[in-house]
Design a protein that fits this description.
By secondary structure, the chain is an alpha/beta fold. It contains 8 helices and 7 strands; from the N terminus they run βαβαβαβαβαβααβα. β2 (35-38), α2 and β3 form a beta-alpha-beta unit. The radius of gyration is 18 Å and the shape is globular.
Length: 258
């Protein structure tokens, strides 16, 4: 009897997914029938996450490596096809945040942020689109933007710039890949409770006070939107960006004012 799960017969790559939002996306995809290639630059995190998904949710293969490296990106695509027979979904979740004052920001930090956030996302999308085109059956690509691509945030000029650029990339790809039945979108999370943000003891309280919905996002809030965009339910949605921030960008109080 065929599975009725939403992502049955789908194969997804999720980068930067050893923990946090990416891991939750991987869990939900696997739980809904997808075969998932999960990537993180940290091998221990990669293997732990893949093991957890295999034991609890569904099918997952962990592949650690630098998701901004073009040779490794192609290796991820090739491995997904080798392991699971095809590739239908690519989620460019890997990214880095390097805080710094605009007036003091250093070139090495600037180019590292661009290389990872833009280069990694651009070339994953390119490699995935080429593979999906060869297969001839369509697919979905999703970029991970941020509220900082919509609203100025102190010490995040370079980061916010890359996130805004990803939303433009999603728009531009519409004229490049729609003929191959590939839709491309972006989601822009706001403050989200993850292992990384939990390192700041004041994070949840601060963002709960300045978020209209009364709390930061959970990874599941972001993953729910991600799954919609790469599902069959969103096949006619492309070139779009969705902010998921509990209303913060509507009012935009700074956490630094608290």
């Amino acid at each position: 009897m065929a599975s009725s799960k939403m992502f049955n017969q789908q194969v997804a790559i999720v980068t930067g997914a050893g923990q946090g939002i990416g891991f939750e996306i991987g869990c939900q995809l696997a739980a809904n029938g997808a075969s998932v290639l999960l990537n993180d630059i940290d091998d221990a995190l990669t293997q732990k996450a893949a093991k957890k998904i295999n034991e609890t949710y569904g099918i997952c293969f962990g592949l650690s490596g630098d998701a901004s490296d073009t040779f490794f990106i192609q290796h991820m695509v090739d491995t997904a096809v080798e392991k699971f027979g095809k590739l239908t979904i690519a989620i460019a979740n890997a990214g880095i945040t390097l805080f710094g004052s605009f007036l003091e920001y250093q070139p090495e930090a600037f180019y590292k942020v661009l290389h990872t956030n833009l280069g990694g996302s651009f070339f994953l999308a390119q490699a995935a689109a080429r593979q999906i085109k060869r297969q001839g059956s369509g697919g979905s690509i999703l970029f991970m933007s941020s509220v900082t691509g919509h609203q100025a945030h102190k010490n995040l000029a370079a980061y916010g710039m890359t996130k805004a650029a990803l939303e433009m990339l999603a728009k531009n790809m519409v004229i490049e890949v729609s003929e191959y039945n590939i839709n491309v979108n972006a989601i822009a999370p706001g403050a989200t409770l993850t292992e990384r943000t939990a390192e700041d003891a004041t994070y949840e309280d601060t963002w709960s006070k300045i978020t209209p919905m009364g709390r930061p996002a959970y990874p599941s809030d972001i993953a729910n939107a991600a799954l919609f965009f790469v599902s069959e339910k969103a096949r006619h949605i492309t070139g779009q960006s969705l902010v998921i921030d509990g209303g913060w960008t509507s009012v935009s109080p700074s956490p630094y004012e608290e």
